[in-house]
From TrEMBL:
Species of origin: Ohtaekwangia kribbensis
Stated name of the protein: DinB family protein
Domain DinB-like: 39-129
Length: 168
């Protein structure tokens, strides 16, 4: 690939983070509500904080990890060299309603900032910048898939599992 297509990149990023934005989709299901943000906004904080397997991760943890990684990428896009402590990206596992709403807003804000930064950037001659920017797409796709599978399990078992958790 000799040139970097910002428009194609942004369309794929939008699809993964927001959901269907055009008549067709490249990565996700065509129905509305299948991007990361639209998927997580249907969950309560309690659901987002519930691990679907013992010792497993939560939707809140995946959401924070995605937000954190986009924030890190934004630093690089701005010409910074931020330190990457990936363990820090998984520090949030549970949230209350206020924290959950803030986490969703923070994810949307950093997504918008990434989108703006990529859109405004003209110099794509640095191979590491191109690779790092492109790497965000499969990373988002992976976490979208993980989140959607967790939501599927939660939607099938929320009443029983959440009830058991609160009794323990």
């Amino acid at each position: 690939m000799s040139t970097f297509s910002k428009q194609s990149y942004l369309e794929l990023l939008d699809e993964l983070v927001i959901g269907k934005t055009e008549e067709f989709t490249w990565v996700i299901d065509r129905e509305p509500g299948h991007g990361i943000i639209r998927t997580i906004e249907q969950l309560s904080a309690e659901e987002a904080s519930f691990p679907i397997t013992e010792g497993g991760s939560t939707v809140a943890a995946h959401t924070e990890h995605v937000r954190w990684s986009l924030q890190l990428a934004l630093g690089f896009l701005k010409g910074e060299r931020p330190a990457a402590n990936w363990d820090e990206s998984w520090r949030i596992k549970t949230v209350d309603e206020k924290q959950w709403k803030k986490l969703q807003k923070d994810l949307n804000d950093v997504y918008t900032a990434i989108r703006d930064s990529v859109g405004k950037r003209d110099d794509w001659n640095e191979p590491r910048m191109v690779k790092g920017t492109l790497a965000m797409l499969p990373h988002m796709a992976y976490h979208l898939g993980a989140i959607r599978q967790m939501v599927r399990v939660l939607s099938n078992n929320t009443e029983n599992k959440i009830g058991l958790m609160s009794e323990a």
